[in-house]
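Quick bug: cyclic-guanylate-specific phosphodiesterase output formatted oddly.
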Amino acid sequence: MALEQSKQPFHGSEPARILIADDEPRLLASLAKLLRGRGFEVTEANGGKQACEQLAGKAFDLALLDLNMPDTDGFAVMERIASQQPDCGVVVVSGEGSFGTVSRALRRGALDYIRKPFDPEELLTTVEGVLGKQSLIKAHEMIQTRLEKSEALHRYIVNSSPDIVFMLDKTGHICFINNKVESLLGYQPSELCGRHFGHILDDRDVARGTYALQGPDISVDNPRTLEVRLKTRGSSKATRHFEITAFPVDPQTWPQTGDTRGGSTTQPARYYGIARDVTERKEAEAFINFQAYHDLLTRLPNRALFKDRLELAITQARRAKQKLAVMFLDLDRFKVVNDTLGHAMGDRLLQAVTHRLEKCLRRGDTLSRFGGDEFTLLLPSVNSPEDARGIARKLIQTLKDPFQLGNHEVFVGVSIGIAVFPDAGNSMDQLIQNADIAMYHVKARGKDGYRFYSDSMSINTANRLSLERDLRLALERDELRVFYQPQVCSKSNQVVGLEALVRWQHPERGLIYPGDFLPLAEETRLIGKLSERVLDQACRDVGHWINSGHPNLRLAVNLSPSQVEHPRFVETLLEQVQSHRFPVGNLEIEITENVIMNDLEQISRKLKELADCGVRIAIDDFGTGYSSLNYLHRLPIHTLKVDQSFVRAIRSGEDGACIVNAIVAMAHGLKLEIVAEGVETDDQLNYLTSLGCHQVQGFFYGPARPAADIDRLLSRDGLAFAHTG
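Here's what came back:
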């Protein structure tokens, strides 16, 4: 009789009404023909949208749905069925066979899942079976009755569960476990039945898992819930995280003894429950936690984690009366690479820099990406500043070699500020801020170096903020003044050039010299606007004097490292000079050796472009940096400026003057002009003249002067200077 019923279209007098939804017309027609051949009343829907329209106007007993339909997918149709025709069963017929998709479909209410391509007889059998189950549901109405009469459906539900379903006896041995354990952990159910559940517990969780079932208060209303790690088959290291919920078995509702299906234990079931795989959730939580405290690009601790560790290190250092050091690192020329090669290459450079820096660290040190191209480094235990000095030198040295980014070879340096606890601050914020201040002093002196913070570097924070505000206003209120220091021919005593030097006429503090505000301008990124303002004024002033009868007068201007390293440095400089109709051949730019050596290839190209246009190139503070004959030979250098520290050494006799001798001799050999800075005495002037030094400047001829004084000086005949004493 059961066989005859399965051949009927539906349990009842009318054929079953079936909706078929698929976006493949041929498959749709074939499936409809197959079902109509068995006597079913079939409605075809070409896609999910048509299926939803059919559901709105007609009742169905069963829907066969494809999942991947372009307009409205199968899951959306299932939601429509659940809301409009809850008595309509659903069978998924799809080529998608991933576990996640199958599990999702079953959880959404699908009664079965048939993979494409399907066997026609198997499909018909499945459809008739599902319709049979639907008939039972309608006939008995209660799911409990259905479960009691259909062991096959019971096992289907249990084994199709996305969770592991288990039963344990009172000693913790497994009485029953569903097939899900195989896909999640690799065990066959038969392997585990009869074994103690501790067999699959991670060793770290055995004691906690065993104790959990021994509590006297476990009940239906108070189940035992815990998270544990379960071992996968054949490996004690590969574990997954599970959330286990266990209930006690009520003997009145589960009267079986040891005859639990699938088990080999002779004891009756005492507990039942589920184990839900929460590995993805735990990994997501770990990732979110990592993301909250780490920089995802470099995988380094971020600012928040660095501050936490620094705060702890300060507490420990204060208790042990030890020192610690905080370093603030800023990459030199990173912005140039980022602007020139793009952000992707910039990210690769940051990762490569991080890899090198990490090799310099000691165990316990914390390197952090503070933001952009800024890093901070915590040295939690230093015996003296020399320890920090050694680390700083290693960090600088490790970045000397070029980085290969695709087809590009790039150079970056690093400027490092160091603050030592407790000398440079007693709090986290003080140490970070003072290390930052020290770093900007390195930037102001040519980059690629390190400095320890000292009180002389900065006024207090309140005054510093006030000075920064005033400096921004100074640009708006035109408070910057350009003074000029003459460069004088050592033989004729006549002015041959003027070096433009900036001064700040502060409305309350009076005249402020560059050393007191240029580092702040570098730090606040105002140096570009400030230098542009100085060059504009100098071009106007010196251009006027050139047109007034001094055609050979040279204008010398200092350029900040950030200006020279900018990708549009050459174009910007030439546009600015030409806008004032200043003769390019009368302009001499002064840059330091460190700026050149930060990226010899790029700087060489820029300087050659300027030299080809007629701009003269001078090396400022020569002798205090690399002093490399290699770059002097390769670059279009016109002038060397001897640093004033060497000129002052002339007073100590022949031994102190040997460096000046060497520099002058080298300049003559390379056919370069030479300017000696800081000349203050007759002895120095005479010594330099005897060496053949072409030009000098310094207090011997007076301090830098405003334009009005220079105007009067140039209007005199002979342009000769009197000794100022």
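Actually, after a second look the formatting is fine. Residues 1-9, 257-262 have pLDDT under 50 and may be disordered. Closing.
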